Amino acid sequence: MPYGAESAWARESPGSMIANYVEEAIKELERNPKYHDETNKLVSPHVLAMDIDEEETFDACGAKFTSDGKLAIVFGADRLGSNTGDAYWHKNLEKGISLAPNIDALSFYARKGIREEYEPDIADI
Question: Is pTM beyond 0.90 here?
Fold first, then answer.
């Protein structure tokens, strides 16, 4: 049955469930300021959406950056309402950023590696 079982939270309280996804997404974005530049670059209109993870990129839910500049909370068709706090968990957010339509020459993980592993030590050389 799509979108969870008959007695699932998604069917019984969809408004509460959606609000929880959004609240948890905001908390995770606030908890991880190191992703703000990347996120703002990819989502300049600051639009949040929800969609089905048709590619099954994430287990229960995750973060997807669309080509039209939206940040989407995506969920598996049978996982709506599951693990709502994990959509923008730092590993899912990194995965979403790395898969985002991007015009940069370096991938997200390459830029992250330079920022975290090279730049702090370059002054010592």
Answer: no
